[in-house]
Amino acid sequence: MPKVVKPLDIHNLLPQTNCKLCGESSCIAFATKLANRQTSIEKCPHLFKPDFSDKLQKLMELLAPPVKEVIIGVGDRAVKIGGKEVVYRHELTWRNPTAIFIDVHDEMSDQDISARFNFVKNFKFIRMGVELSIDGLAIRCVSGNPERYAKLVSKAVEEVGKPIALCCLEKEPLEEALIIAGNVKPLIYAATKDNWRDLAELASKHKCPLAILSNGDMALLKSLVKSVTEYYKVSELVLDPGTFAEEDVNVTLNNFVATRLLAIDGGDKELGYPLLGVPAALWTLSSKDRDNIEFEESVLASLLMSRFADMLIMHTISPWAIIPVLTWRDCVYTDPRVPSSVKPGLYKVGSPNESSPLMVTANFTLTYYIVKDDIEKGGVDAWLLVIDTEGTSVQSAVAGGRFTADKVFESMKAEDAFSKVSHKSIILPGYAAKISGELESLLGDWKVYVGPRDSADIL
Amino acid sequence: MGKEAKSLDWLLSYITSLLKSIEDSKEIIIEDLTLEVDNITIELPVASRAVEVEKEAVAIEEKPIKLIEATFNYPKPSYQGSIASVKIGATSSEGGSRKKTYTIGGAKAPQFYNFIAPQQHIPVIALDVFDVTPPLAGPVKEAYKDVLNDPVAWAEKCVKVYGADMISLHLVGTHPQNKDLPPSEARRVVESILQAVDVPLIIGGSGDPRKDMEVFAEIASATRGERLIFASITLDMDVEKAVKPIAENGHNAVALAFLDINQAEELCRKILQAGLPKDHLILDPTTGALGYGIEYSYSVFERIRLSALMGKEVLQVPMSCAATNAWVAREAWQKVAEWGPRELRGPLWEATTAIVCMLAGAELFMMMHPLSAKIVKKYAQALSKLLKNPSTSYVDWVKSKF
After folding, report:
1. Of chain B residues 310-369, which have a CB less than 8 A from chain A?
2. Can you give the CATH number for the domain in which A103 is found?
3. Is B16–A182 a contact, with Cβ atoms under 8 angstroms apart?
4. C-alpha to C-alpha distances, B172 to B145, B168, B169, B395, nearest whole angstrom
5. Is B169 helix (H, G, I), strand (E, B) or coil?
6. Residues of A with Cβ-Cβ distance to B70 under 8 angstroms
7. Do A224 and A190 belong together in one domain?
8. Both A128 and A11 in a single domain?
9. Binding of [4Fe-4S] cluster: at which residues (chain A) (predicted)?
10. Mean of per-residue pLDDT scores for chain A
11. Which of A141, A158, A384, B132 gives 20 to 30 Å between its CA and that of A407?
């Protein structure tokens, strides 16, 4: 369950001047909003004055989410991960959508490298008007050669302009790369039982976030977290419990779940960091054909995202394999408290008049927006009659008896659709074709047309 | 670099590397470098950085030798509720004629949380067959093009070629506005499929509540003892009347609710009150396609399962998922060059829809494409295994040449 913070405990740490500069009517109102995560402490200017620094510190601790928020990158080249308050999405909302990084390494051909740079930089998938894209580049050191690695990192920093992760388990190449890229705050991947002193030192020196990798040994993972935080004061951490694939995928899933339950429900601070999954690791295993690996890599990415991954490193750059992952991320990070239905009624799309077409659809939010969007794209002014299908799509509403001729007829009467248009025709969605006969008999001299199954085909 | 507007970050990194070269080479000659910078104070952290390097050279001697030890104990949340086990299909010794039978349910923890309680059963996948072929997405049609007009051959192909655990037969042709096929005709199709394959069947209706009740009653009594699944009973049916023939003949039923935990509860309660034993009931909370409402399904599945485990008795039944619905998404079937081949994209869309619902608690799947079914089954099997140390190495991914 979400961590409960009492508004009064917050109020004790506020200036209590009721100055309203935060936009709220009083300090207690501000405290209540803070407790409900509806505003942020930055809204109160007083808190950032020197006299308040102690209270600010306490307030930040009080409001800190059980999973720390970690920033990779700087300025407009940064991505926030973690910051989770709840285990399950339905308990509140998941914050900070899973960051998706694509890998590249220093022994790839120039052609492969530029294809990957280009994909990370430019790939877009537009979904309901929102642009979905890749968050960053994970640069692997395969050569072991510091100069070669640093050269690729330098090229990436200059050409890609997105957050990066430096994936290298040896000190020297990392050291060299950090001279060039330390100031863009890459994620250093990863501290292991062998290299943790060197990597923690580098992370501390360059003030970069550090990933912890224990190859599936969970006690070691915690032990590494303790050691780097206590000895080196490195506290911007990301946990990689290991993405074991194939038969061992259950180990991966269980370690992700257990870590998150312990961090949020168990209050275990050493595990309260973002989780990193690496579906790209699938590529080390198989001699399978390429399509097969990409398919499974995509499924694995969605699987880990459903089970709490805050960041993913992937290898595929095929749109067909990436689009489902981006789509699932876009869906699962929405606010579950927003209802899935729009109010039934007669809506105007554009500026319809009495000779504009009359179309019918269901009141499932997504259905409504997709249809409206498609009509607009088609450049038509239309009347859109949205009937109450209890928030289900046309297809399931028809199957479940929630999209019936009676309902359409009743709704036309209730919305006075008969006086809105001078013609006597109505267009049903393709999936509702089977009610057209019945509707025609209810409407008398009206003509019932059946439109396409998919509103993209309107016009 | 002169004319180009480089960022300060870049400049700093440039100077840093320059200083590094100076440090390394002791001598450096700079030619043709002009910095045109007005009114900017540059703090040079690099200088102090260089000093730090020397300091740390000393510090290395004092580096911690040992890791601070820690223990990791898997959490053991206790759940007071458990999910009923539902047996699907009956062998000849059990009063049916199936060679293969399955059990789902029995969970004492959220799905695949094996560190709390081992997964009881591997999720089961049924492939869809239609009595009258509806319009199908291109990639699906391709997989069944040789059997589309023969539900019996279609069912055989699903089991023998594609390895389906079960068949989900959709009697869409019985709908009054489709072919209005009589219940006796539907029964004949069911009987022929039961002859042709040895797996259990899901008997899917047409969505017309009144007709479905007639069709279900006819088939339920004709297949007495086979322990089939009838899908679905909805709130707009006369629930008591619909349940009677299914319960009396020893079958299972699916309760179909529309993305609403309260509705699911109400429907399950009515069905149980009408006399169907709890170990014969499966709940379908409705599956929205990936990109078209799947997040509502995901959260409803999770809420139902958690609520059941925390003691809500009426929801303590296994859940099913019609992943087939994924094909309504245009991303699954539309030909769009920049989205890549739909022959892969479509099945992946369906597989993703299924996997997401499976993690949230679904154990019985209705699917269409053989490739998606295969991958989902593979993950279902792997995730149902008992936990043991991984046999594969993982860290190697960093240095692998893929």
Report:
1. 325, 328, 330-331, 334, 338-342, 344-345, 347-349, 351-352, 355-356, 359-360
2. 3.20.20.20
3. yes
4. 19, 12, 9, 51
5. strand
6. 219, 222-223, 225-226, 270
7. yes
8. no
9. 19, 22, 27, 44
10. 93
11. B132
Q: Are A309 and A244 in contact (CB under 8 A)?
A: no
* Residues of chain A positioned with their CB less than 8 A from the CB of B347: 295
B158: DSSP letter: I
pLDDT at B12 over 80: no
Pairing of strands B362-367, B124-130: parallel
Query: Does one domain contain both A152 and A217?
Result: yes
**Measured CA distances, A175 to A78, A84, B12, B302 (Å):** 21, 32, 16, 45
Instruction: Write out pLDDT tens, residues B280-313.
Output: 999 999 999 999 889 999 999 999 999 999 999 9
Q: Count chain A–chain B contacts defined by CB atoms under 8 A.
A: 275
B104 backbone dihedrals φ, ψ, rounded to 5°: -125, 165
Return phi, psi of residue A203, to 5°: -65, -40
Q: Could you tell me which residues are beta bridge partners of residue A77? A: A74
Do residue A370 and residue A246 come from a single domain? no
Whether residue A120 is annotated as binding a ligand: the answer is no
The token pair at A22 is: 């935060």
Q: Burial-class residue B386 by CB neighbours within 10 Å (0-12, 13-18, 19+).
A: exposed
Question: Which residues have a Cβ under 8 Å from the Cβ of A419 and sit 6 or more positions away?
Answer: none
CATH number reported for the structural domain that contains residue A30 in this entry: 1.10.15.40
Among A432, A357, A421, smallest CA distance to A393 is for A432
Angle at B41 between CA B36 and CA B42, to 5 degrees: 85
Cα(A99)–Cα(A69) distance, integer angstroms: 12
Find the closest chain B residue to A297 by CA distance: B348
The reply to whether A33 and A96 lie within a common domain is no
Number of C-beta neighbours around residue B184 at 10 A: 11
Longest Cα–Cα distance of chain B, Å, equals 96
Q: A373 and A279: one domain?
A: no
Domain that holds residue A358: 345-457
Cα–Cα distance, A204 to A48 (Å, whole number): 26
What whole-number distance in Å separates Cα of residue B195 and Cα of residue B217?
Answer: 20
| Statement to judge: residues A327 and A366 lie in one domain | no
Q: Would you give the DSSP letter of residue B288?
A: P
**Using CB atoms, which residue from B207, B259, B396 is nearest to A284?**
B396
What is the percentage of chain B residues whose pLDDT exceeds 70? 85
Predicted TM-score of the model (pTM): 0.84
Which residue of A lies nearest to B67 if distances are taken between CA atoms?
Answer: A227
Query: Would residue B110 be called left, alpha or beta, if left means φ above 0 and alpha means ψ between -120 and 50 degrees?
Result: beta
Condensed to tens digits (0 to 9), the pLDDT of residues B362-389 reads: 999 999 999 999 999 999 999 999 999 8
pLDDT (tens digit per residue) in A171-191: 999 999 999 999 999 999 999
Q: Which residue has the tokens 């995202």?
A: A305
| Alpha carbon of A20: minimum distance to chain B alpha carbons (Å) | 37
Both tokens of A292, joined, read 């097969």
Instruction: Tell me which residue in A140, A180, A253 faces B383 most closely, judged by beta carbons.
Output: A253
What is d(CA A249, CA A394) in angstroms, rounded to the nearest whole number? Answer: 37
Q: Are B69 and A223 a contacting pair at CB < 8 A?
A: yes
pLDDT reported for residue A291: 86
| Per-residue pLDDT, A399 | 78
B397, B400, B401: best mutation site toward chain A, by most A Cβ within 10 Å?
B397
pLDDT at residue A419, as a whole number: 92
Mean pLDDT, chain B, whole residue set: 88
Whether residue A287 sits in one domain with residue A169: yes
Which residues of chain B neighbour A251 with C-beta distances below 8 Å?
Answer: 387-390
Q: What is the ipTM of this complex?
A: 0.85
Cα(A284)–Cα(A287) distance, rounded to whole angstroms? 9
**Which CA distances in Å does A324 have to A302, A329, B268, B291?**
8, 9, 33, 8
CA distance B206 to B170: 7
Q: How far is CA B62 from the centre of its chain?
A: 52
